[in-house]
Every structure is written in structure tokens, then in C-alpha cells.
Amino acid sequence: MSSPRLGIGLPVRNGERFLRDALDALLAQTFGDFELVVCDNASDDATEEIARDYAKRDARVRYHRAEENAGAAANFNRAFELTQGEFFKWVAHDDVHEPEYLEACIGVLDAQPDVVLCHSLVRFIDEQGAVVSDHEPRLHALDSPRRIERFRDLTRIGHWCFDVFGVMRRDVAARTPRIAPYAGSDRNLLVELGLHGRLFRVPRPLFLSRDHGARSIRSMTHLRDRTPWFDPAASGRRVYPHWRHLVEYHRSLKRAGVPFFERARCNVALLSWMRHHRRYLLDDLRSHAGGGAPS
CA Rg, the chain, in Å? Predict the structure, then answer.
């Protein structure tokens, strides 16, 4: 059998409460040429039972289990490695997609070769699935043809990184570190993808983000608090998350092969970024007064 056009990775740990809703929405998509791998990070609830049941009922679904908690970063990347296809997409266990989501995103990627990732507008739902509000997008240069404009936009602090759950070109994502083992590395991934090409949002709210108290960004409000979630081995280490982001922004320019003069403009933009976000950088230093190197 030929490989599907789209590989979907669903990394999860203890997602029994909302997993069925997420799977039902994916299996009801109008675009069906995909495989779906549920990548279970050593759950100790009913996640395994639920996922195995769906795998029995639909040949597109596969289940993979890790016996020990390797952290979110490793689990996200394992989900990428276990799938095939021209395109790839991560799915969170607590989010829901309207039936036309995949068809709309794949249509954009097929029609516009310079778009490396396509998502949609976002709508918030509550724990019961009722619509709460529409998300007001704060990034407005994602699909600019100018790399420097995309870089300035994506490096901004203060936006939710919803676009990391968009449909992306696998070959481009494979050239990045993907989700690296430090807090907030999804933001760095989006920046690096934006160095390779445009990011596009379908102008309809086809992505339903479930906002609830147990989601990571609600239960762990500071980047430092999320470090063990990304990488359990980093628990207790000195971490300087905003400095790490800055260093990785610089490194991504080289990894993406940005030409010299454009790279210089992006580095100037990083100097401006440091001025505008100096309070975050200072907060990192104050939190570990007495020394230490960025982790």
C-alpha cells in the first residue's frame, strides 16, 4: 500500500478525559488520506484502553506506548518519527477540529508551494465543548513574502503558539530540531519554519482549542515551571528560558541557510528584541542570582 499523504501524531499523557472527542473529530474529517499515531507517554489512566479501541475500529489509527515518561519534547518528536507522508501534523488530545480542517489546510499547501505550514483561525471551547470565544490572532505577518517580517512577528512574546498544530511540510520540519527539550521550544520551531517559508491561516475558525485548568499553559504559568514537562531530566537545573530562546533564534538563522545580508537584518532585529523584552531576560537572571549558565 502507498503511504498516506498526511501523518498525524497525537502525543498524549493521561488524556482519558478528552481523547475520544479528539479522535472522533479526526476520523470524521472530509480529507481522509492520513495515518494517525497515538503516542502515549506512559499514561496511567484509561488512555491506552481508549486508543487501542480506536485502533481496532479504524485501520488508519495506530497506538505506540512508552513505558517511562520521557517528557513532552521526546514524545512529540517520537510522534513525528513514527508517521509517514508528504505532510505532518501534531494534535493535542484535548483539542477538536471541524470536519473541513484538514481539507482546507491541504488545499492551501497544494496550491501555494511557498507555504510551509497551514493552520486556521482558532476558537476556544470549554471543558464540555461549548464555544467560549474566538481567539484574536496577534500575529499578522506570518504569510508575508519577506522573511525578515515573518521573523520579527514570530519572535514576539505574548502570543499563543497555536500554529505549531498546523499542517506542515514534512521535509521542512525534518530540517529543524522540532520540539527541543527546553520550555517554549514550540515558539522557536515556529520561528525556524518561518525562515523556510510562509505560514498561512485559513480565515475560518476550524480549530477548537479546549481551554481548561489542567492544560499545561494554565497549570504551569511560567516557562521555568514547564521545564520538567518538556524534559523530566532537566528538573532542578538552572534554566534561563528567554536567553535560551534568544540563542536558538540566532542558531536557527544558520540552520535554515539564511543568506548573509538577510541574516544580518535578522540579527539586528534580535537586538531590538532584547531591548523590548529585557524585563524577561532580567527576570531569568534574577531567578538564579549567583551564576549559572543557560540550560
Answer: 19
Record the pTM.
Answer: 0.93
The one-letter amino acid code at 31 reads F
Cβ atoms of 9 and 93 within 8 Å: the answer is no
Give the three-class secondary structure for 174.
coil
> Nearest Cα to 286, choosing from 231, 242, 246?
242
Q: Could you give the domains of the chain?
A: 6-179+198-217 (3.90.550.10)
**Residues in the chain, how many?**
295
CA-based max dimension of the chain:
59
Residue type, 258: V
Task: Give which of 197, 176, 199, 198 is closest to 249, Cα–Cα.
Answer: 176
Model confidence pLDDT, tens digit, residues 145-204:
999 999 999 999 878 899 999 999 999 999 999 999 998 999 999 999 999 999 999 999
Interatomic CA distance for residues 75 and 4, integer angstroms: 22
Element holding 87 (H helix, E strand): strand 87-90
Q: What is the DSSP letter of 3?
A: P
Closest CA to 199 of 158, 153, 159: 153
Angstrom distance (rounded) from CA 128 to CA 223: 28
